[in-house]
Amino acid sequence: MSVSTRSEFVDFIVPLRERLELYDPTKPPSDQPKNDAADITRAIPQGFKDAMSVREEVFVTEQSVPLENEFDEDDKRSFHWVAFASVPAKHSSPEITAAEDHGQANRRVSNSTKIPIGTIRLVPPPHPPHPTPGSHHKIDALEGDLRTDSTSVHDKKEGYIKLGRLAVIPEFRKAGISRLLVDTALAYARNHPYEVMPGWDPAKLESMKLESDRGVNIDWNGLVLVHAQVGVQKVWRKYGFETDKSMGSWEEEGIEHVGMWRKLDVSAARRRSKVWLGGMGSPLGSP
């Protein structure tokens, strides 16, 4: 699978893992260290920096999240999508032509350019326990004050994916960009239930089980969580998510959050999966 595949309006970036070791969270995405030009496998894709530029504008500039907290360890293992818009390019001349060297007629160079306007990420399992009601955390960086009991939706055993970092720059917030991003991410998860799982190496899986706090499973059957800011719960309800009142609320970077869930039907994709048809069943051994 390629690292980044760009369609007309949406860029898709698969988990970058160790490539993001080069990302400096204390600096804005426009001022990241230069990658080793001789080794393209070390490069941080432009698509990821585009995602971070949107997050910087929305979360850091608008909502006062400290820049160094905006990038976290989950970014390394997450899938990201970035939405773009075409805007007029600024030229010194209203018309620019490119001369052809092989006798062809001059042709007009595009007078528009694409800019990143929205982003979302999908974090695969495993995840730490849910935050305790009334607790305080850095943005999505859960530590301490974590609940050990189940919620009314999550029994601590079922694996889930997490959508987050949904952000759209102000000028495009009434253009349906949030819905485009949410629908795109959910459609990918629904159609690729095994691809959003961690690696399937048995030793690695066993290690991840042990690391997934208090035995939280990492097999995934369609459960999706968002940590929603209280003020945008109604937006997530439009996308099919329901608030889990048993989780209460907590603060991330001083902003009150609640847990919201949705269950996707992934049965059809599991049945037609090459792994399923090959007789291997679930990568974790469940039917």
TrEMBL record:
Entry-linked CDD domains: NAT_SF (cd04301)
PROSITE patterns documented for this protein: GNAT
One term of GO molecular function: acyltransferase activity, transferring groups other than amino-acyl groups
N-acetyltransferase domain mapped to chain residues: 38-265
InterPro entries: Acyl_CoA_acyltransferase, GNAT_dom
GO BP annotations, alphabetical order: UDP-N-acetylglucosamine biosynthetic process
Entries under Pfam families matching the protein: Acetyltransf_1
Highest taxon of source: Eukaryota
The protein's name in its UniProt record: N-acetyltransferase domain-containing protein
